[in-house]
Amino acid sequence: MSDVRKKKRRWLRRTAAITTGLVLGWMAWGWVESTSHADAGQDGPAPIADPSSQVQPKSQLDQEAQTLLNTTLQRATNAYAIPMRVTGTLTGKFDVADQRDERSMTVHGSWARSADGQLKIRHLAEGEIELVNDGQRLWIMQPGSERYLSMPAQHMTQHNDTIALLTQQNPAVIIAALGDARKALLPPNATVTSCEAERGLVRIKSIEDGVAVDSLFDEATGFIVEMRTDFASHLASRGVTGIREAWATVRYEQHQRLENPPEDHFRFTPPPNAIEESIELPKSTSAQPEVTQ
Length: 293
Known about the structure:
293 residues, alpha+beta, outer membrane lipoprotein receptor (LolB), chain A, 8 helices, 26% helix, globular
């Protein structure tokens, strides 16, 4: 095994809560996906394929529901295109076989463009993970850790691990990062099973590889109200038994326009003596990143 591959594996073990396939940033998904990647012979972050070659999400909707879906996703795309600050609550429960975890935390997100057009982003799941994109570099750190990751800013939108993390912890942030609610929330091979309006809200349900997503949008503003992800069928399809509950929900309490953020708002300052581990993307984003420290 090459030195680079050994470094990558050590990095994955040390930062298991924020790496390949991680969806919750905490709980079951990292465990399930690390097993899946090991079976497939992968040991690094999974890159996104060329968008032109991706399979588009499928739909089981009639024409009226399809129109509502298209309108809602476009409205969400427009809503999150402006500088904004969001606050929500992330909760989840994992009770499978002898593994149990139940947590609740506040999540924050903010984004804005600099004078030269670079998108800057901050995501924080309190007590769990901090992610900062300053327009040049992407920084990821777990509170209390002695190590942090840094990588080119484009990693945020070019690799599935980071997108998966943000989609489940703070979907508003990944919509802003990708500039497209459909691309952010409906991955390739997803099937949209329903889209219905109910009392000023729009509920969109989809499923991909057994992972069921139930999203609620404000019909007037396009803002996400709530997103619930259920992993039970996905786990069962992997041969996991003793599944009682395996889900995560993020619910937003605040959407606020971000006006004149402080100069250091999108600046990452590592703790004293913390060790940086850098992931540099090769020229071809289909290749696996190299890890240095």
